[in-house]
Design a protein that fits this description.
With about 375 residues, this protein is an alpha+beta fold. It contains eleven helices and 15 strands. Among the domains are: about 190 residues, no CATH class; about 60 residues, no CATH class. Strands 1, 2, 3, 4, 5, 6, 7, 8, 9, 10 and 13 form an eleven-stranded mixed sheet that branches. Strands 11-12 form a two-stranded antiparallel ribbon. The protein is rod-shaped, with a radius of gyration of 58 Å. It holds the Pfam family DUF2213. This is DUF2213 domain-containing protein.
């Protein structure tokens, strides 16, 4: 993966031949912060990448910087033997070396146009290098957490870039002049000679000094936070609406239950209904004992009694209310059956076969008298 790391060129001098000679520090050890997009991840706004000293100052890493070319801005695809002549404006003159937590590059700029651009303000030197990203999280000896580690660092070139672009060089989408991912540099890591690299942004009402990359990261984090808060608010609103709807449903069910309970017949009401039904059936039977009362409604029983007593024509086309009035009129004359009057009119009816039993008893007696002589008398 391609990376850049930029510092300002300071302490320069000119050789007798007009070359620009300087020693610049670039690429330090420690944890660097990159945007997640530049690192190829989508689940993190920023990624903390650890650049350990054993990787930065390894023989392989430092040897790769020896005599590497200096370019004006970052080339699109890096410097190779095929394009060195067109791109090189100078070189790292000798072997790079360790300087505290930094790599120090002794450099010489030979191209007149590059020297002129440097003197006009193109004073930042940005190292272009490749490395392998080892996605193993951990904690440094100083207690800093990181998400990945840079390994097998190999330098390709040093690019002379505009001082005014120091903060914006790492922006996503720089196109041909963007060699690779650049760390988000915080204020205390900046060269003191470059205060114009910082800008102020407001974070929760507080003014924060940061670079353009830092401002972009802060803006993304703020938007992500606001989006998450809005999503949570929407979910909370939907939850409250669902609870309110359910409460309304429960309230309706409770009201319906109370209404049903209030409308249910009381025991006294049931007793009255039974008594009224029994009285109606009894009256109908008195009016006409041949009427079948089974499975008929009260209205049907009253209509049957009216038909029995007053005829079909009276009941024809009559409403239930009219039938009820007619029934009341005929019910007044209804009387319970008189057992004595029934006997007088119908006579006493023998119950069962009593006459036959009496005849049989008389015949048995007569037969016994006729057959008595057949039995000898008992001895005295």
């Amino acid at each position: 993966m391609q990376f850049t790391d930029a510092v300002t060129v300071a302490g320069t001098r000119r050789s007798a031949d007009g070359y620009l000679i300087a020693e610049a520090r670039a690429v330090r050890t420690g944890v660097q912060i990159y945007t997640g997009s530049e690192m190829g991840v989508t689940d993190k706004a920023v990624v903390r990448v650890y650049r350990p000293a054993e990787e930065v100052f390894s023989d392989e890493s430092l040897r790769s910087a020896s005599h590497m070319p200096i370019t004006i801005d970052h080339p699109k695809d890096g410097v190779t033997a095929d394009n060195w002549k067109e791109l090189a404006a100078g070189e790292v003159s000798t072997l790079a070396k360790k300087d505290g937590e930094w790599v120090q590059f002794p450099l010489i700029v030979k191209d007149a146009a590059a020297i002129k651009a440097f003197e006009a303000g193109k004073r930042e030197l940005s190292a272009g290098y490749t490395c392998v990203i080892d996605w193993v999280p951990g904690v440094t000896a100083d207690g800093e957490e990181y998400d990945a580690v840079q390994r097998h660092i190999k330098f390709n070139h040093l690019a002379l870039v505009d001082r005014a672009r120091a903060g914006s060089k790492a922006r996503i989408g720089d196109g041909a002049i963007s060699w690779g991912a650049a760390p988000i540099t915080v204020a205390d890591e900046r060269n003191p000679h470059m205060p114009d690299n910082l800008r102020n942004v407001m974070v929760d009402g507080l003014s924060v000094s940061t670079t353009d990359q830092g401002a972009q990261a802060i803006d993304k984090l703020t938007k992500d936070r606001d989006a998450a808060a809005a999503k949570l608010s929407d979910a909370d609103t939907a939850h409250k609406a669902a609870i309110a709807s359910k409460d309304e449903e429960i309230g309706t069910l409770k009201a319906d239950l109370k209404k049903a309970q209030d409308g249910a017949p009381k025991p006294a009401d049931l007793d009255k209904l039974v008594a009224d039904r029994a009285a109606l059936v009894s009256t109908v039977n008195k009016l006409d004992g041949k009427i079948d009362v089974s499975g008929k409604s009260d209205a049907e029983l009253r209509r049957a009694a009216v038909v029995s007593k007053l005829g079909d024509e009276m009941a024809k086309d009559a409403s239930d209310a009219e039938i009820s009035g007619m029934f009341k009129a005929i019910a007044k004359d209804a009387k319970p059956a008189d057992p004595f009057q029934s006997v007088l009119s119908d006579g006493v009816a023998p119950k069962g076969d009593m006459r036959a039993q009496a005849d049989a008893a008389r015949n048995a007696r007569n037969q016994a008298l006729r057959d008595g002589w057949k039995s000898p008398a008992d001895a005295a």
